[in-house]
């Protein structure tokens, strides 16, 4: 009777169809292709696994002790046919797995723009993808729609059959952006940008979450993803715009502080340069952006100017390290100049080069002095001016201005 007790659990199997196997039944073309890749890999491996498991049972039954008819061959040690099957079958399967993995790695690259909506519909050339900037916070998700000038917290929406291009970053801790119905997961890292291209093919409400542990509020770091028709998406955007509040840098700095179980928040407007500032870790006023810092370092650094323009670099937001050295106050690398000042410096540097060229043209010719903006002996001054370098970019304007 005890042996029959496990059979009493069989009726519970009827409840399994109520479980939503979203990974095996996705609503997005990219997730569907990833599902197919997974299924093909499993089927290929089962070609080996199933016969092996069957032969284990068969051999155990055939060569049991009570079977006196089984042939006893203690000196058997080789079979060419058996060796051929043992080695050839796995080799062919490995070749097949390698081929579909190689093609899938390139075709399903998250950075690769989409070339189709689904298996039966290509992507028209005039269709522009919907850009969504994603910021993983502690412990919530911020979604910015540059095309519409709105933003949301813990709520995402997209039109059906329109490509989506995600630009993803994080504020402090590495997270993983994952909507199983849409596409595979991809990491969100501070100071870095990852991309994901995807499309939703069926209307519905789906779940997204962080698939990488990131601290106390990780379990509640979930959001709703709405797949809507175009009319429904336009209505959703209008509802977000009706929120009334805007997302500027000051509001963002408050939002960035760690919080758990954050409800859905709508922002009717967004600071145009907010996402770039988050990515470059310079939302705070007066803080040097990573792009500016790297551009200066590329040109050899600031030299002695850094002694006066740089504070201790500590990117901890809410806890200090090295208090014994730098003290407990806020510290960071200060921006050398604002974007407007950098642009003005670039214009001034170009103007000074032009004035220098005019002065050299009007002055007495110097026979043996050559260089940028100066004529070679016997060469007209106009050809020399054509070789004058173009004005530097706004990022490197400080170096140009200091050299002038």
Automatic annotation (TrEMBL):
Membrane topology: Multi-pass membrane protein
Annotated ranges, domain Cytochrome oxidase subunit II copper A binding: 127-239
Transmembrane domains' residue ranges: 37-61, 82-102
Pfam families: COX2, COX_ARM
Keywords carried by this UniProt record: Cell membrane, Electron transport, Lipoprotein, Membrane, Oxidoreductase, Palmitate, Respiratory chain, Signal, Transmembrane, Transmembrane helix, Transport
Predominant location: membrane
CDD domains, alphabetized: CuRO_UO_II (cd04212)
Listed NCBIfam families: CyoA
Stated family: Belongs to the cytochrome c oxidase subunit 2 family.
Protein name per Swiss-Prot or TrEMBL: Ubiquinol oxidase polypeptide II
């Amino acid at each position: 009777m005890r042996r029959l007790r496990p059979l009493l659990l069989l009726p519970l199997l009827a409840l399994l169809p109520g479980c939503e196997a979203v990974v095996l039944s996705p609503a997005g073309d990219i997730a569907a292709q990833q599902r197919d890749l997974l299924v093909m890999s499993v089927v290929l491996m089962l070609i080996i696994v199933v016969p092996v498991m069957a032969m284990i049972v068969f051999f155990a039954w055939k060569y049991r002790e009570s079977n006196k008819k089984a042939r006893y061959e203690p000196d058997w040690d080789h079979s060419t046919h058996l060796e051929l099957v043992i080695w050839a079958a796995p080799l062919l399967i490995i070749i097949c797995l390698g081929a579909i993995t190689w093609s899938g790695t390139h075709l399903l690259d998250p950075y690769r723009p989409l070339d189709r909506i689904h298996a039966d519909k290509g992507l028209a050339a005039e269709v522009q993808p919907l850009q969504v900037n994603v910021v993983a916070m502690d412990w919530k998700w911020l979604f910015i729609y540059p095309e519409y000038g709105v933003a949301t917290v813990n709520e995402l929406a997209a039109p059906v059959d329109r490509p989506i291009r995600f630009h993803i970053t994080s504020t402090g801790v590495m997270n993983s952006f994952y909507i199983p119905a849409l596409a595979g997961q991809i990491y969100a890292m501070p100071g870095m940008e990852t991309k994901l291209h995807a499309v939703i093919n069926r209307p519905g409400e789906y779940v997204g979450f962080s698939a990488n542990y990131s601290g106390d509020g990780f379990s509640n770091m979930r959001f709703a993803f709405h797949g809507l028709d175009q009319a429904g998406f336009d209505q959703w955007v209008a509802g977000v715009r009706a929120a009334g509040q805007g997302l500027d840098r000051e509001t963002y700095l408050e939002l960035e502080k760690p919080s758990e179980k954050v409800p859905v928040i709508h922002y009717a407007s967004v600071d145009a340069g907010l996402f770039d500032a988050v990515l470059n870790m310079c939302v705070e006023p007066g803080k040097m952006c990573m792009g500016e810092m790297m551009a200066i370092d590329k040109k050899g650094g600031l030299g002695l100017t850094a002694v006066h323009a740089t504070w201790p670099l500590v990117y901890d937001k809410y806890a200090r390290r090295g208090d014994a050295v730098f003290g407990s106050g806020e510290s960071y690398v200060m921006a050398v100049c604002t974007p407007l000042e950098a642009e003005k410096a670039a214009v001034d540097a170009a103007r000074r080069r032009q004035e220098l060229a005019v002065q050299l043209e009007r002055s007495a010719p110097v026979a043996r002095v050559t260089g940028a903006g100066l004529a070679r002996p016997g060469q007209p001054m106009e050809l020399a001016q054509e070789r004058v370098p173009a004005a530097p970019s706004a990022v490197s304007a400080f170096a140009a201005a200091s050299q002038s």
